[in-house]
Amino acid sequence: MTPGGALLVAGTTSDAGKSVVVAGLCRALARRGVRVAPFKAQNMSNNSVVTLDGGEIGRAQALQARACGLEPSVRFNPILLKPGGDHRSQLVVRGRAVDTVGARDYFRHRTALREVVADELASLRADFDAVLCEGAGSPAEINLRATDLANMGLARAAGLPVIVVGDIDRGGVLAHLFGTVAVLEPADQRLVAGFLVNKFRGDVELLRPGLDQLAALTGRPTLGVLPYTDELWLDAEDSLGTVADAPVGRPAPARGREWLSVAAIRLPRVSNSTDVEALACEPGTAVRWVAEPSRLAGADLVVLPGSKATVDDLAWLRRTGLADALQTRAAEGKPILGVCGGYQMLGSRIVDPVESGAGAVPGLGLFDLEVAFADPKVLRRSAGRELGSRIPVHGYEIHHGRVTRTGDPAWLELEGQPEGSVRGAIWGTHLHGLLECDELRRGWLRTVAAAAGRTGFEPAADVSVAALRTAQLDLLADLVSEHADLPALERLLADGPPAGLPVIGSGLTAPC
């Protein structure tokens, strides 16, 4: 393979499977000794992680880096948009927040962002044998073509071959694949080299006639049909997976006599929703996203996760009655966990001149805690211990809020400083990833179960979240290796777009 080969994996829709296909390809190539790196020019997600170089990138790119055997780096996701409302997003460039933008004023950043993307991709291609690029949304959003940095705009600028992934589980995949190509302008179409079908159930031979007709209509082959599996659920790309009243993962049978039920509140602007996935890794722990008060009544534990719009989501808790339900629960001594923005909401007061501009806002009053928002955003990896048990812990922090006063005992000690709060059966922390610390999670869940009266619940001593994540990456690589034409994909990486790819449909012309 020629050093510096690159390929773009696009999708017919958001959540079509771009992230998992890139992760699977990364893992499959890395297992064969290829020096491979992931790249997503522009991501829009509130699920992010802190990198070793002190920046912030989408969580999917961190997982893809892990698939390659690499530490997460801002190089892999140089532009991140974090939605704080329906019309405004925080713009993160090379790991640092630089502005808050709407769709219209995003245009003024276009030239500078193109240069950032081009520089980072060129740098990665110089350092690695292969770079697997992930698109964003769909390349068929031709109304956005003029400002596109992550789909055909990237492919055209860098001369990348493009594979389009479609999710057959949603129905209409053949039309989606054909239509995605047909609406592109001719120069973009000539970069689309083939298709991948994702989440197929049943006998692939029944699909074969449709794929043959798709090849005849488009002049492009389908390079793989990946089967559906419900074993892939860790590290969701965005909030599409956090649907209210939906389960998280598929927990293994309980090790003890009783199950533990967990209700995770699905905030409108939930961020780092993946924090609750570590709980769902525990046998006998049933985790479900909820969005209305009645769903809290039977839960043994309620989790209030992070938010990209803390004050706005706090107001939503009050409007929906969930705030009253949490306060009733606290008065009854039932377990609650708040993480990052959720932790801040549990305090007595938030002063926010940064995200919402609302100034001083009363919290839920479950902690004696005051938080003030300020720039710059706190971005750091942290390590320390749980104060009571002295169990080692680690994770990362992403927040504008600083604790200005607290009257409750700290839960943790990080880098020698107290962090988080404990009051009865209520816990809070700014530390994302805390529950991935297996020893901490097991001991804490025993405490939660005792407070909830679930004396028959027993955490598993042999569950490792890191090992489960690695197993999912290996499963992805196995699926790609078995069900995709990996040699053909490697040829695209080495040789670039095939010559003579036909233009189909109307061959629309869009402004560049």
Task: Please explain how this structure is put together.
Helices cover 30% and strands 27% of the residues. The model has no long low-confidence stretch (mean pLDDT 92). The chain folds into two domains: 5-221 and 485-495, 3-Layer(aba) Sandwich (Rossmann fold); 241-464, Class I glutamine amidotransferase (GATase) domain (Rossmann fold, 3-Layer(aba) Sandwich). Helix 1 (18-31) packs across helix 13 (465-483). The chain has helices at 18-31, 59-68, 110-127, 152-158, 173-182, 186-189, 204-218, 277-280, 310-320, 322-331, 341-345, 438-452, 465-483, 486-495; strands at 5-11, 36-39, 42-44, 48-50, 56-58, 79-83, 89-93, 96-101, 130-134, 162-167, 192-200, 222-227, 260-265, 270-271, 285-290, 301-304, 306-307, 336-339, 349-352, 359-362, 369-386, 392-406, 412-414, 417-419, 421-423, 426-429. The strands form six sheets. Strands 2-9-1-10-11-12 form a six-stranded parallel beta sheet, with helices on both faces. By secondary structure, it is of the alpha/beta class. It has 14 helices and 26 strands.
